[in-house]
Amino acid sequence: MSFYIAGTGSALPRKVVTNDDLGKIMDTNDEWIRTRTGIRERRVLTNETLTELTEAAGGQALADAGLKPEEIDLVLCATMRGDMITPSQACLTAEKLGIVAPCFDINAACSAMLYSFEIADAFISTGRANNVLVLACEAMSRQLDWTDRSSCILFGDGAAAVVLKKGEGLIAQTMVCEPARTIYNCAYDGASPFSTVENRKVGLVMDGKETYKFAVNVMLAQMEKVLEKAGLTMDDIDYVLPHQANIRIIDAAKKRFGIEDGKVLTNIDSYGNMSATSIPVLLDENAKAGKFKKGDKLLLVAFGAGMTAAAAVCVWSK
Ligand code: UT7
Question: Are 154 and 187 within one domain?
């Protein structure tokens, strides 16, 4: 298929919030959070903007790919909500990086990075772009209901970027949405003086148990589907990069496929769930650590509100 991953980058807020820090402001504790989710700490925005982070992550990815801003043909940003509703986060970042190209955001919750891969593939394979900058960012801390201890402890803020370049690398992709609005959503209300809606719930709402069940099923299904599409088995895969929502969901996938230790990459302990940003941060950190060899096959899989889900298999070609 049309592209390979030519560059990566990531940038995280400075503030580290540990489980013990949360225990000081709500009725929770480190033991509960760690054993139920695998999370120890997360990063949270204080006085930084998302744009500062996406600019840093995008700049790193461009440098890593050896590309100048004028060589980028399209900028996508995987996010539920950037610094502004409009202009898009892709526009805000392109302006900072000196890129003049079409820019738009993709909202598919935690699956948005992999949805963006499909869009990049469509542009590159039809000759409309050679180099696509895909950003990801999320300010979950601005969207959470901080009075709901069952959801606000799960998430963190961050940004990341990849440069997708025309060439051989992507082997197969899948994406899906199975509507299930009520179990996991995040509403925004502009408080119009004419609105007659009363007691509208604003902020993230999640039925943890239902989301958990859905997540395990849909993640396993997407992994099976993308392997089948790629004509591969799990034995052919060198590394799995799953969405970082809960270590128990990741362990369920490990068990189902009998995946050996070390093959499934995680960073949920340090960052929690950063929505669409989780997978590209994981990718960037492991790339920078020299984990991937040329020719390694990576399986990326995500799921999120919608409920959306997506997967991709690609060869590390750098
Ligand atoms: O991209 C996002 C996708 N989202 C997910 O993948 C999340 C999927 N769901 C989950 O990860 C889990 O359902 C949670 C971690 C959110 C919750 O774990 P659980 O094992 O389903 O816990 P629970 O909701 O059944 O709660 C068990 C108990 C309750 O107390 P009682 O009723 O048994 O007395 C809760 O009130 O734990 C209590 N509880 C807490 N206690 C301490 C809930 N949140 C907390 C907390 N600290 N933060």
Answer: no
